[in-house]
Amino acid sequence: MLYIICWLTETEAQYMAMDKGQGMYVFLHAVKGTPFETPDQGKARLLTHWEQLDYGVQFTSSRKFFTISPIILYFLASFYTKYDPTHFILNTASLLSVLIPKMPQLHGVRIFGINKY
């Protein structure tokens, strides 16, 4: 894996970080419900995958992993793009768009009513 990362160009590192970040946002924070039936009488259909993860308990090992992985990608992408201002701003915006919804204060909160139903 380290050999693959060493050969990344600036653009490839940028796309890797942004695609991973936005993919995690969609999968964890935008899509609601479950792909299978659950015995919770339909309560899961109103929650995102992040809210269902570990039954809503904060700071578990799986939540920490999903929080740390975009941060590591952010550092790698920033390093391999040599902290270019344009890439740095795009990487920071991508990182914040993934980390802010993971905050415990935003558990179950729908900003501007987006994804309410």
UniProtKB/TrEMBL annotation:
<comment type="similarity">
    <text>Belongs to the ORM family.</text>
</comment>
<keyword id="KW-0472">Membrane</keyword>
<dbReference type="GO" id="GO:0005789">
    <property type="term" value="C:endoplasmic reticulum membrane"/>
</dbReference>
<dbReference type="Pfam" id="PF04061">
    <property type="entry name" value="ORMDL"/>
</dbReference>
<keyword id="KW-1133">Transmembrane helix</keyword>
<dbReference type="InterPro" id="IPR007203">
    <property type="entry name" value="ORMDL"/>
</dbReference>
<protein>
    <submittedName>
        <fullName>ORM1-like protein 1 isoform X3</fullName>
    </submittedName>
</protein>
<dbReference type="GO" id="GO:2000303">
    <property type="term" value="P:regulation of ceramide biosynthetic process"/>
</dbReference>
<comment type="subunit">
    <text>Ceramide-sensitive subunit of the serine palmitoyltransferase (SPT) complex, which is also composed of SPTLC1, SPTLC2/3 and SPTSSA/B.</text>
</comment>
<comment type="function">
    <text>Plays an essential role in the homeostatic regulation of sphingolipid de novo biosynthesis by modulating the activity of the serine palmitoyltransferase (SPT) in response to ceramide levels. When complexed to SPT, the binding of ceramides to its N-terminus stabilizes a conformation that block SPT substrate entry, hence preventing SPT catalytic activity. Through this mechanism, maintains ceramide levels at sufficient concentrations for the production of complex sphingolipids, but which prevents the accumulation of ceramides to levels that trigger apoptosis.</text>
</comment>
<keyword id="KW-0812">Transmembrane</keyword>
<dbReference type="GO" id="GO:0006665">
    <property type="term" value="P:sphingolipid metabolic process"/>
</dbReference>
